[in-house]
Amino acid sequence: MRRVFSQFIFWTILCGLVYPFLIYGIGKLSFAKESQGSLILRKGKVVGSELLSQKFESPKFFQARPSAGGYNPETGSASNLGFTSETLRKQVDERKNYWLSRGGEAEVPAELVFASGSGLDPHLSPAAVEYQLPLVAKARGFSDEQIKHLKLLVKDSTEYPQWGIFGEERINVLKLNLSLENNVETSALSTAEPSTYRSY
């Protein structure tokens, strides 16, 4: 009985204390940023996470993919609405009309009218970002030269497939908007060479 009890104490300490703290320590040392939620700082303040989408109200910023959960990380989820749903059809029409009202092209990318499965997808395809590019430029009153630099900034913000084979090209919307704001504030958007852009 004493041996059984000793084994119980040993494995409880090993699996319940030693192992968790060991893994936590390894994570903190080897993946410091990831273990804290991949948080993004701007001017010393946390403004979001690379892993979570945010809603941007101003037309001066690139808009993230629609969220069925209101961009709330605690309730992030899909809507479970099927393609035959009248509610889904109305939502899609409303989102499409939003882009058309801003002067967007008639062929709106699906990512901009359909919510993602998690409701918190932080990325958009380059095509969905390029669709918004002239609209953002118009809202900011950019000149033709500034638009050229904005295109280069978008290209510089593009993430490529992992190891060249896993996933697709994508752009983190939050990081792109922060890069845009930084370059506007420093006038780099209209004067700097692409290699000097401050991107996240």
TrEMBL record:
Subcellular location: Cell membrane
Swiss-Prot/TrEMBL keywords: ATP-binding, Cell membrane, Hydrolase, Ion transport, Membrane, Nucleotide-binding, Potassium, Potassium transport, Transmembrane, Transmembrane helix, Transport
Membrane topology: Single-pass membrane protein
InterPro entries reported in the protein's UniProt record: KdpC (IPR003820)
GO MF terms, alphabetically ordered: ATP binding; hydrolase activity; P-type potassium transmembrane transporter activity
Single GO cellular component term: plasma membrane
Family: Belongs to the KdpC family.
Function: Part of the high-affinity ATP-driven potassium transport (or Kdp) system, which catalyzes the hydrolysis of ATP coupled with the electrogenic transport of potassium into the cytoplasm. This subunit acts as a catalytic chaperone that increases the ATP-binding affinity of the ATP-hydrolyzing subunit KdpB by the formation of a transient KdpB/KdpC/ATP ternary complex.
Subunit structure and binding partners: The system is composed of three essential subunits: KdpA, KdpB and KdpC.
This protein's name: Potassium-transporting ATPase KdpC subunit
Gene it is expressed from: kdpC
